[in-house]
Amino acid sequence: MSLIEKLTQKWENSDDPFLIHPSGKLSFTEVSQQEPVDLSSIRKGDVVVLIGDFDPASILTLLRLIDLGVILVPLTVETADDHEYFFESALVDVIIEGRTVRRREHGQTHPMIEELRNRGNAGLVLFSTGTTGRPKAILHDFSYFLKRFDTPRPTLRTINFLLFDHIGGINTLLHTLFNRGVVVAPADRSVEAILSSCEEHQVEVLPTTPTFLRMMLMSGLIPDKVPPSLGIITYGTERMDQPTLDQLCELLPDVDFRQTFGMSELGIVRVKSESRNSLFMKIGGEGVETQVVGEVLQIRSTNRMLGYLNAPSPFDEEGWYDTKDVVEEIGGFYKVVGRTSEVINVGGLKFMASEVERVALLYRGVSLVKVYGKNNPITGQHAEIIVQPSNSKNFDKIAFKKHLSDHLQSHMIPRKIMIEEVEIGHRHKRS
Question: What's the rounded Cα separation, in Å, for the pair 336 and 271?
């Protein structure tokens, strides 16, 4: 039975909305009965880019491509500058944008793509965010990804904040489809638009990022513009800081804050926060193992990717993946304190950039910060900081520097303080 047939059966005799979109409320039947894009030129096993969003046409095309057994590469218009790089890295055969389908000739192949074709299974290619080097092309067997939805699970009315090219966004879409839920596709992903959509459509779950939550705090729209329907806010894709979580918990006492953790390389892993105001979490789920080696978290998962199409395998001989996340562990719960790339070494004294950021965010009027190490001919490295105040005209740089000096050891104090906007990527993460 095809995926569309399975979902049609699940939604049989239901006129309930599955998708709330700027164009209106649509049932699954209405989504599936749209005029389809002509896919007659596409063959099983083709690597196919779908440039889209969580709109009715893109959703229908995505489901049809899975049924055709292609290797799907979901992309968004926000990453247009990188599309040619993505096409080359994933050895793309076909590009679909809107109703236009065009074939791309390249004459190349890859052993993992051939392996997937020999299995006869659909595939999924996702791209890493590329914070260290160019984005990596991550290849999954889509049949393994879909198996997680065989077990029915409860669903709540969810806004699909995470994007069409993100594993979390695809997961939210499919979870909602398989469990007869409702997903809200926002008109845009500004703080005001997201909170407005949550209120208008009585959204119960908001999956988001720590950076976006900081932007919510900056906006002044919470708690007044947070509707009572919103009971759960999940955050992930980057490290959260305690000051932000503390402020959110105080302003929104009726909201349950839950941390998520996952990497496109490993598929979706299950996470349980120790409490709503704690950054400690338990990581597990079926087929998932964890261990800590030298304070760095490693994960082994049966639902992991097949591998990178444009980089060496990151797994060791026993299948462990080095997450590069430095963690603290208490009683089986982990707290991510930073990345191995964020360790700063000043004259042999090592510290995490996240510790300096935590102190900086405690200063009144600071909205976003980013700390990084800079090479130094005398000490090896020193710290520098970018600070984005809520009001740059009234920001007292001298008082801020004194705050850092009062709360940090001397070697941790940034040698350079820049007052400017912190760059944020299309996935609402700090770049």
Answer: 13
3-state secondary structure of 244: helix
pLDDT in tens, 281-322: 999 888 899 999 999 999 999 889 999 999 999 999 999 999
State the pTM of this model: 0.86
Residue 294, pLDDT score: 92
Rounded Cα distance between 271 and 258, Å, is 9
Residue 416 has pLDDT above 90, yes or no: yes
Tokens of 406: 């009062």
Domain limits at 68?
34-146
Residue 195, number of CB atoms within 10 A of its CB: 23
The CA distance from 38 to 381, in Å, is 57
Q: Is the pLDDT of residue 130 over 60?
A: no
Residues 6+ apart with CB under 8 A from 228: 254
CA-wise closest residue to 47 among 67, 16, 80, 73:
73
Domain boundary among 98, 124, 146: 146
The whole-number pLDDT of residue 144 equals 85
Q: In this structure, what token pair is assigned to residue 170?
A: 């695809």
Domain endpoint, select from 146, 178, 196? 146
Whether residue 291 lies inside any domain: the answer is no
366 part of a folded domain: yes
Phi, psi of 334 (to 5 degrees): -115, 145
Nearest to 226 by CA among 258, 253, 193, 199: 199
Q: Name beta bridge partners: 409.
A: none
Res 427: pLDDT: 67
In a domain, 357, yes or no: yes
- Residue showing tokens 């090592």: 350
Domain count, the chain: 2
